[in-house]
Description:
The structure holds two protein chains of two kinds. Chain A is of the alpha/beta class. Chain A has one domain: Rossmann fold (3-Layer(aba) Sandwich). In chain A, 28% of the residues lie in helices and 25% in strands. In chain A, helix 1 packs across helix 2. Chain B is an alpha/beta fold. Chain B has eleven helices and nine strands. Classes of the chains: A alpha/beta, B alpha/beta. Chains A and B meet through helix 3 of A and helix 1 and helix 11 of B.
Amino acid sequence: xxxxxxxxxxxxxxxxxxxxxxxxxxxxxxxxxxxxxxxxxxxxxxxxxxxxxxxxxxxxxxxxxxxxxxxxxxxxxxxxxxxxxxxxxxxxxxxxxxxxxxxxxxxxxxxxxxxxxxxxxxxxxxxxxxxxxxxxxxxxxxxxxxxxxxxxxxxxxxxxxxxxxxxxxxxxxxxxxxxxxxxxxx
Amino acid sequence: xxxxxxxxxxxxxxxxxxxxxxxxxxxxxxxxxxxxxxxxxxxxxxxxxxxxxxxxxxxxxxxxxxxxxxxxxxxxxxxxxxxxxxxxxxxxxxxxxxxxxxxxxxxxxxxxxxxxxxxxxxxxxxxxxxxxxxxxxxxxxxxxxxxxxxxxxxxxxxxxxxxxxxxxxxxxxxxxxxxxxxxxxxxxxxxxxxxxxxxxxxxxxxxxxxxxxxxxxxxxxxxxxxxxxxxxxxxxxxxxxxxxxxxxxxxxxxxxxxxxxxxxxxxxxxxxxxxxxxxxxxxxxxxxxxxxxxxxxxxxxxxxxxxxxxxxxxxxxx
Lengths: 186, 318
């Protein structure tokens, strides 16, 4: 059974804290580009940008883009073909900017590696940071997040579900399938 | 998808997926680094038994932009001119480890034969077979129409309610056939306009309107798209019309007919054009013409097709 670990208010607080941390480490919102990884990373990036705009109303609106990593994945040959999604780079590009990659769950780190490769083909940012709503551990690559909403120790057999109101009609993070789970792996 | 052999058996969902992936591929063409690592280590063979420059170059560029290795094999000056059969050619390519084969052949059905024979376990893309089909051309035409009509909001959309006039040599045209099936699948209305001598036997059973008078068709259909087909002089081994000047006068898109089209009607041509025969220079170079866009979109479509056929786990896909 699914166990809810973050509720709507928890998610909102986590995003607000991440927004403050991004502003603090970047010393303001100038030269900042948030790049969301589809699908939910884009929604989270937009929300963080909205919060940043509220915190710093005098600065120019925070730039948001999307970064599809499908074509850069290292497991393409081992999975059924996936449709790609849109990559949108804000006007002005990412050269010399601080790019914050935004995703919902950080797990093996392979998506982030793909995203770094994809960014490399788009330009040369001054720095790349990583913001995630949930870090569930089990990294397979030397990658760590700079801004984390919540650290969730999990077993590899469990599944993390992030639901956001824009796409899923609910606003929660839950863990599914405890250690004694039997069927449907994933 | 394992192969792309025709548009007739392409489902609406698969067609829309190819067009949507092509949207993402066309974004890549605008970048400074126009290359993706996706098909690294895969080998694509362009197997062209018939002359073609633009289609071959387009496939070659598409495969290279996806980081595949490309081998161009043209029948002229190859083992085929020494009498090698399609089977032996295919088995040779299989032995060399080809992952994808893009085939153009003057015999209708040869891509199907290659896909079904078991001679080679590669993904087969039909790049034009006889007078049968040319599916990537139809896909790039549909992509071009969708972009002109829906603009930036194209993703996920079909071509419902769009009326398309396809004018000229329907008899020899695999482009017309592929376009008909795909456009019908996407919800568009198709009308063929041609001299009776250039319509194939049985065309009246196709899901398309048939007209013989271009002026009446323009006035009554009020088309969103006018697609002019090339007069294929290399296939004109009989007298289909009295002479080129008469064809141009009765069936060509000249300046006067161009002026009678709605200002937002799209003028398309698969190329290469015979300027002054089926299309006037003014029509070909007007703002309504998509001829150059079609070429650019061709690379995006072919990237999408190669990606969807060759990137996934080929054992698992049906």
